[in-house]
């Protein structure tokens, strides 16, 4: 590959050629190894890897740890609505998938300045921290870290472990419903620990949702930071 197309970076040109190969049927299932693609397009493996990441972000490709990179045209991203009532189980079930949740770890922590502001609690207040994994029909879709006032929800860890649902765990504490106060979205490279849980390559991109939920009296219920694989999820905001 030469530099004739000035203004177009090498990885974008590689991505365009891979996309064209998929469109014309030259590649219909699994991509060749990165080393072979690098030789074919006369670029280094880093350039190939970045091209593959961009196509994965579009939902065209998916990477499977230890197996390789596959064409994903028949499996579009899951549309995940974000609104006043954002519920993982309801969102997934509505799209014909089977939701499930698993507790990764839990601990009691003290509210730092940021968490105290988000949860409107005293600095140093006891919080229950839950790290959870959410899946749909066996496919990992998010890893979340949630903080809950420990005095208000003393059994949140046990109840989540038993039900696999934050909504059900809160209901057991007498909270029948809650709503989203705010959601902030960013993107970042996946953390190695999250990559293991989400079955992602170490250089994958994740969407990060930082949210606060409140009850009917506007008292904060939880502060949560969720990480979604960018090639599997599409966040849809509904007003």
TrEMBL record:
Origin superkingdom: Bacteria
UniProt keyword annotations, A-Z: DNA-binding, Transcription, Transcription regulation
HTH gntR-type domain mapped to chain residues: 8-74
Listed Gene3D superfamilies: Chorismate lyase-like, Winged helix-like DNA-binding domain superfamily/Winged helix DNA-binding domain
PROSITE patterns: HTH_GNTR
GO biological process: negative regulation of DNA-templated transcription
InterPro entries xref list: Bact_HTH_transcr_reg, Chorismate_lyase_/UTRA_dom_sf, CP_lyase_PhnF, Tscrpt_reg_HTH_GntR, UTRA, WH-like_DNA-bd_sf, WH_DNA-bd_sf
Pfam family, one: GntR
Protein name as it appears in the record: GntR family phosphonate transport system transcriptional regulator
Organism in which the protein naturally occurs: Aureimonas phyllosphaerae
Taxonomic path: Bacteria, Pseudomonadati, Pseudomonadota, Alphaproteobacteria, Hyphomicrobiales
């Amino acid at each position: 590959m030469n530099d004739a197309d000035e203004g177009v970076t090498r990885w974008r040109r590689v991505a365009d050629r891979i996309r064209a190969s998929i469109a014309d049927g030259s590649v219909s299932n699994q991509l060749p190894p990165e080393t072979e693609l690098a030789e074919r397009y006369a670029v280094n493996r880093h350039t190939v890897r970045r091209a593959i990441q961009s196509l994965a972000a579009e939902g065209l490709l998916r990477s499977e740890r230890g197996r390789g990179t596959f064409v994903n045209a028949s499996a579009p991203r899951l549309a995940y609505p974000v609104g006043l009532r954002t519920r993982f189980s309801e969102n997934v079930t509505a799209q014909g998938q089977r939701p499930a949740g698993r507790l990764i770890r839990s601990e009691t922590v003290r509210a730092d300045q940021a968490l105290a502001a988000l949860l409107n609690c005293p600095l140093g207040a006891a919080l229950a921290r839950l790290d959870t994994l959410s899946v749909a029909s066996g496919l990992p879709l998010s890893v979340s870290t949630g903080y809950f006032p420990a005095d208000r929800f003393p059994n949140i860890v046990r109840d989540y472990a038993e039900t696999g649902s934050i909504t059900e765990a809160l209901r057991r504490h007498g909270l029948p419903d809650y709503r989203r106060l705010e959601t902030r979205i960013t993107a970042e490279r996946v953390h190695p620990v999250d990559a293991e849980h989400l079955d992602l390559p170490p250089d994958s991109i994740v969407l990060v949702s930082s949210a606060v939920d409140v009850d009917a009296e506007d008292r904060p219920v939880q502060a949560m930071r969720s990480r979604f694989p960018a090639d599997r999820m599409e966040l849809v905001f509904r007003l």
